[in-house]
Amino acid sequence: MLAPSASERVARLMPKLAGGGEKPTGDGHDGLRSGVLPASFGFDDLAALVNASVDGITVLDSDHRVVYANPAACELLGYSLDQLLGLDGLKLIPERARPTALTVFDNTRRGKSQAVGSLATRSDGSELAVELTTSALDLRSKQFILVASRDVTERNRQARRAAALAQAAASLIVSDSIHAATDAIAACALRGTRALGAWVILDAEDHVAAWVGAAGMPDGFQERLGPTACASAHSSLVRQVLVTQRVVVYSDAREQVERDGLACAAGQMKSLPWQAAVLAPLVHRGAIVGLLTAVYPEEELPSEAETTFLTALADQAALAAANARLLAAAREKIALEERQRLARELHDSVSQSLYGIQLAARTARERLDPDLAGVVQPIDHVMQLAEDGQAEMRALIFELRPDSLQAEGLVTNLDMHIKAVRARAGIAGETVVRDEPEAPIEVKQALYRIAQEALRNMVRHASAQHVDVRLEARPGTVVMEIADDGIGFDPEGPFPGHLGLRSMRERALAVGGSLEVVSSRGQGTRIVVTVPSAPSPPMLNEA
Questions:
Q1: Least confident range of 85-94, 262-271, 442-451
Q2: pLDDT tens, 424-433?
Q3: Residues 492, 312: Cα–Cα separation, whole Å
Q4: pTM greater than the 0.90 cutoff
Q5: Dihedrals φ, ψ of 451, to 5°?
Q6: Which of 149, 216, 381, 483 could form a disulfide with 197 if both were Cys (CB 3.0 to 4.6 A apart)?
Q7: How far apart are the first and last CA of the chain?
């Protein structure tokens, strides 16, 4: 319903004033035909009130033709007063909404005034969401319909935005899939704005895969963007967002995407008639964990209300990122327990069987006559297969049970992991690992996980051929250094492995230590981790 306004007061006053005043000449509504409320009807004071109303007020005759329109109605509909007078009022309503309008007009004639939501057609053909309040007006045996109209476009947008935020929050609560949650957030971005398409990227970190949720985008967009999401860090579009941690609006986003050479994004979005974009960072505890992007039609820019809405929506998405990591941690714990069970079963069954085969073959080999070459050769082959299988089983069991730090120590586990990585990646290197450090299990776990991440980054991103690892216990501290001869990078610039670097730094900080990265293009990378050998209170996350 409309709030009390000039138009509402007009609707109430019209029937009361219809019979008052000096009797007119002619048919009694010549003044209405001219678009002026005549003083002869007793409307001297009312005319000023109607003309000053911020709501559009039109009067229709029995044939639904416009006989009066105030200045607000002319502005709302995009017509001059001369253009409106005599115009069929139904032409001011989209064809699909006319049956409803006719029903409302009929009800109004029978004395049932109504306030309804509808659409108005402007002079340029565009449609406008309006709320109409109708009232019957009897003047000198003639019946008219007074229509007060109010533009509710922004109110509807705000309602959609509020509903979208509520839906996004609900999606985070009830969804057991982060993919579903990110898709829901992208869909909410479309519902609350005029954007053509939107997508959400949650960065990969701590063994959590990168998630991409999208809405309004071409088929295959998510699949193509997912594997190359990290490439967006090189884009000039994203760089400003990373530095300022604020929402940024780009009016020429399409040109920048094409200029930055992001072939994946540019190719997938080529079919969309888009130009501008809004990029909203997902910030959680002072760190950017993802990005919400909305693209807009050509020649359109987001309003301030829309950027505010997308900022709020990005906050919801940041919660999704945090929940994703919690969910991943819980699943990782369950997976760890399952890996431990499998490792025990493999050790107690397959591994022992392989050892038995190896032992039996060796015994048979020793008892055979050396001259029986035809028999010795297949036994040697069986022994070799058993030894290879045993080695593979040890590596598999180690991968299934990296938590054996408590039982076997950091040195043993680190040495086995380094050997496994080098064997699989085909890289060389030197390992200098001395005595087991006297340190709490939390410190050993941090060092082991940092080594895992560093080696993973060097294999995936550095194209290294040689990796050296050194672990040394010093008075009060433990120092681990990992160096490679890879392509190197700028530690201060955007780089796909930076998320892993942040994870390593956070692990070091969590046990009171520090992490130093020394690298440059073409000069390899050296990572130095220094942690206290005594327990230390956790430090706050670096912002």
A1: 262-271
A2: 777 888 888 7
A3: 29
A4: no
A5: -60, -45
A6: 216
A7: 48
How sure is the predictor about 91, in pLDDT bands with cuts at 50, 70 and 90?
very high
Torsion over CA: 323, 493, 463, 451 (sign): negative
Q: CA 184, CA 34: separation in Å to the nearest integer?
A: 54
Sheet holding 431-433, edge to edge: 431-433, 467-474, 477-484, 525-532, 514-519
For 469-478, the pLDDT digits (tens) are 999 888 888 9
Q: How many CA atoms lie within 13 A of 345 on its CB side?
A: 6
Residue type, position 10, single letter: V
CA distance 392 to 403: 19
Kindly state the tokens that stand for 39: 């003083």
Domain 6-151 indexed as CATH 3.30.450.20: yes
Coil, helix or strand at residue 150: strand
Domain spans in the chain, listed from the N-terminal domain onward: 6-151, 156-329, 410-543
| Dihedral pair phi/psi, residue 437, rounded to 5° | -70, 145
- What values do phi and psi take at 226, rounded to 5? -50, -55
Distance CA 193, CA 75 (A): 25
CB-based burial label for 215 (10 Å; 0-12, 13-18, 19+): buried
Task: Count Cβ atoms below 10 Å from residue 98 Cβ, excluding itself.
Answer: 16
Residue type, 274: W
Q: What percent of the chain shows pLDDT beyond 70?
A: 70
Q: Is residue 16 very low, low, confident or very high in pLDDT (cuts 50, 70, 90)?
A: very low
Beta bridge partners of 520: none
Q: Which residues contact 45 (CB under 8 A, 6 or more apart)?
A: none
Half-sphere CA count of 293, side-chain side, radius 13 A = 27
- 536 vs 411: CA distance, rounded Å: 21
CA distances from 243 to 113, 133, 274, 452, 498 (A): 57, 51, 25, 29, 14
What residue has token string 């250094």? 481
- Give me the helices (H) in 63-123, please: 71-77, 81-84, 98-109
Reduced to 3 states (helix: H, G, I; strand: E, B; else coil), residue 444 is helix
Is 156-329 a domain of CATH 3.30.450.40?
yes
Please give the helix or strand (H or E) that residue 129 lies within, else none.
strand 127-139
Question: 410-543 in CATH: which number?
Answer: 3.30.565.10
